[in-house]
Amino acid sequence: MREPNEHLRLARESSPSADVPGTAMSRQELADRVNAVLFERTGRLHELDDNYIGKLERGIIRWPQASYRQALRDVLGASTDGQLGFVNTRRLATAPVVRLASALQPGLVDAHPPHPQLLSGHADVHGHADPVGESDVRRQEFLRAAFVGVGGLLASPSTLLDLLAPLRPSDAPKRVGRGEIEQVRGAADLLVSWGHSHGGAGVREAANAQLRWFAQLLNAQSTAEVRVELHEAVGLLGHATAHMAFDACAYDDAQQIFKFALACSEEVGSWHLRAKVLSSMARQEIWRGEADAGLTYAELALVRSDRLTATEQAMLHTARARALAKLGRQQDTLRAVGQADEAFAFADPAGDPPWMAYYDAAQHAGDTGHALFDLTVHGHRTEAASRLQTAIDGHTADYVRSRAMSQTKLASLTMAVGDPDEAVHIGMTAVADAGRLRSRRAAMDLAELRSYAGRHAGVPQVAELRHRLATALAS
Q1: Where is this region: Disordered (predicted)?
Q2: Is pLDDT at 329 greater than 70 in this prediction?
Q3: What is the pTM of this model?
């Protein structure tokens, strides 16, 4: 059996979270901070995630590469690899065995044990009677010294979080009705709103916990009508949770939860939820460089498009356009954008499912602008810039992430094919918005802008923007 790396885990759990005050740093937060440090040093985007940190803490990886070890030391305030439990197992195999106690606590082995009666409060170390007050003080001092000095030994493997392990989640009801459905919808609405305004990376664990609990309701008794609405509501919550993982670039987690949401839609024949989930699955595949898979998901969602609203059809044609652009298919991309525009011209928000309210004129302009971006940077004349500007102007304060990502994309486009001074002006605004988000997707867009800005690094204003971008990414 692998030996868990308790040193690293305790170091992380002893570090306060910047995302959720009053709690310990999560694995994902540690990964994000390490990625920021690595980007600052190398100028390259790294994608350490909570899964990788988990492998370190479980002892699956005992000796990460040197740059990772240095970044972890800096983030956690350690001066040596040993303080974080990192061991070069190949070198260790030929080294003499070191006693655990002396390695963890120098001088601990040779320390004199306390007199047994010292803990009783009735005698001093010489066995003489001692006033109770003095004994209490000595006893408290000893206990403090014991638990602070060798906390890693006495508390392991229990930690503050382990103390919560016996707590059981509240039991799910045996029968559900519309009250429970409204609770699920409320949770989904909250997650969606949080993602739009703050990004999805900060509260993933809370979202996962909500989904696990509400998913239990699917096994409860209900009427046939309630069963349909319940599966749709839980599927929508699953979609919101998956999208948070996508925003944190935890692609495997997102894919798994997207499939759960898709299964919910298929179970009760919800064509509208099915279209939304497949659209997001397509967008994730396109984002991670699998444009062909993204195109497949988008076209699968368009099967029996007569069952979908005009807004939903526009959303899916836009996803197709983004995939086709990544595949370098210029004419097909322009045709897909035209189909999206034509569908959106017939949009009727009153007839759309509630979760489609986000897809307004600003969202449509931004999505089609993102699709045309790839054609423009490769020398084709398109409306990408004007569409992205329309999105920026149209997004309200509730959609900070969408506005920031369109601003960043427009700055990159202008830096690539337009005036660098104008690109700096747009980019500075983008940094101000995106820098407040907990979104790794937004961060990757900022890194892309920094790369495009490198073409004009000799311009003082551009150099200042690149510095601002590096600072935002590091934080």
Answers
A1: 1-24
A2: yes
A3: 0.66
